Amino acid sequence: MRTRIVHEGVKHLEYEIRKIVEIGLQMETLGVDMRWENIGDPVAMGEKIEPWIAEIIHELVNQDKSWAYCPSKGVNETREFIASEVNKRGGAQVCADDILFFNGIADAVDKVYDLVHKDNRIIMASPSYPTHSSNEAKRGDYPRVYFRLDPRNNWQPDLEELENKVKYNPQIIGIGLVHPDNPTGMVYSKDALTEIVRIAREHNLFVICDEIYAHITFNGAPVLHLSTVIEDVPALSLRGISKEYPWPGSRCGWIEMLNRHKDPDFSEYCRALVNAKMMEVCSTTLPQMSIPLVMGNPLYPEHLKTRAAIFEKRAQETYDAFKDIPGVIVNRTSGAFYFSLVFKKGALTDKQTLPIKNTEVKSMVEKLVEGVPNDKRFVYYLMGAEGICVTPLCGFFTDLEGFRITYLQADDGIRRNTLSRIADAVKRYLGS
Known about the structure:
432 residues, alpha/beta, 8-stranded mixed β-sheet
């Protein structure tokens, strides 16, 4: 071409969670029966949709209007329903015009970061979910800016580091969170969220909070929406139905614009988000139409409670599988359905291996591990030796070494067998 087509920042578009699937599929062609523990899709892992929810969707399909465009901001009745639900929580109050629909949270995330001035930065937690951190970094081709989550303190944030980085980096104009967190399964304490809001207020920042897992909390952790603690600080809360119904294939998410008129710059930014959505006409209609009927159904609170109890049991089961292994740091999770194991500093080397019987797979793994981070090395050996695909923590932009798994597998026997095999592989790998 006569000149470069793409800008330098595209190199930051990294999504290890799905990238590693390519490696797993190659191993499958060589005879490995792979178990996929990398993707947070409850349906793919065997969760059955509640019949009453499925019936609502069936009835909507038979309505012609569910096949049509909807208003660009979203279905009016649904936006009114969501605004009413936000206001019932107390805290920041919104109206229907403050609700903006997208084709899934990932679509919203792309717009949220693209419309921030390229020289401004959003600081976010590390480990960091790559959809957020990659989109934030790609705009200006700058190094990512993080504050740490501490695995030795139940993954709670280092708030002193956050405030210092905000104080001494004036280009930081916002704080990004995933709450409950992905990949750690941590739920921010109310004190921590309140302190983050204070930092944002004192330094004139706004907050972005991905709340896709907001209603999946357990082990005593409450459901805690940002809107209830944000007070007068401008913020965006990102919500969706993919993990709650669950309906990941619906690609249906929305933004709740909190305190959008408290600051003229933030108001202009929100208006830009709306205008960008106008350019796409609208988001998917049918899933939006289902929200008042499903979330407003008297059966829905019990549905959420039942799922939380299931994940609480699995979270304990997962923690128990790894807690006594020397050389690792683990925490019992309190939200979402992810679990991150961290190897203690120095526990991993570039010499450790696991035995792989298939000679073709062994040769493939030996080539793959050349020059890669040590936690990715473990993951490749785990895939080759045990046929289990997990995601290395290096894929979540952290200097911690470890891996993330889910506890979504609905078959108890398969899930427990998988956990046992991973735990045994960790012990053998560290002892090799």
